[in-house]
Write a sequence for this structure.
């Protein structure tokens, strides 16, 4: 079975824009997704990137135009200035990792709901009530928000190391064997690659 390592960040607008299209492509090809939430800001520091707030004004201005354009193209609601960004994305990542371990729900939907809470619903994903709501809506028990925090923190840190080693320098980032794909706008390329056309 083909394995897709999916490096994502709970605060990334581009992960939100990915929606659940990766899951659709994986299901089409019988591939398995290995979800790897990681600290993107630390990842930038490790791989030569620059956090959004520290970027050149021209890049900040472009991002402010490009994100709403992409959201409109995809038919997704989007707020370029969410009320709770940046915030601490780690608690939501830890809860995601607990859900991953527990099983029983839809991880792809959970990842989307967490990022949607930030970029379309003006919710703070550092808050327990928001995390619990996302867990419940994705078919997981909301109590996972408070379980496995130490294991979640350890996995979250390990995922960062895995990301750096795999060559992931942004999010969303997808790795299939030796092939790397960066950005939600490369999901169609993943589909073509799995068809043997790329």
């Amino acid at each position: 079975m083909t394995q897709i390592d999916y490096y994502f960040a709970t605060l990334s607008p581009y992960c939100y824009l990915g929606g659940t299209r990766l899951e659709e492509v994986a299901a089409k090809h019988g591939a398995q997704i290995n979800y790897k939430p990681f600290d993107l800001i630390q990842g930038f520091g490790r791989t030569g990137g620059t956090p959004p707030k520290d970027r050149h004004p021209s890049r900040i201005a472009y991002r402010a135009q490009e994100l709403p354009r992409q959201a409109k193209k995809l038919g997704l609601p989007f707020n370029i200035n969410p009320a709770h960004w940046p915030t601490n994305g780690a608690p939501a990542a830890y809860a995601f990792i607990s859900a991953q371990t527990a099983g029983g729900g839809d991880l792809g939907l959970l990842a989307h709901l967490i990022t949607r809470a930030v970029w379309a619903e003006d919710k703070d994903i550092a808050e327990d009530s928001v995390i619990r709501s996302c867990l419940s809506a994705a078919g997981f028990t909301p109590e996972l928000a408070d379980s496995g925090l130490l294991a979640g923190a350890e996995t979250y840190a390990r995922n960062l190391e895995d990301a750096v080693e795999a060559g992931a320098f942004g999010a969303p980032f997808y790795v299939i064997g030796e092939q790397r794909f960066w950005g939600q706008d490369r999901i169609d390329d993943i589909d073509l690659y799995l068809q043997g056309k790329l």
About this structure: The chain has a mean pLDDT of 97. The CA atoms of residues 1 and 30 lie 7 Å apart. The longest strand covers residues 3-8.
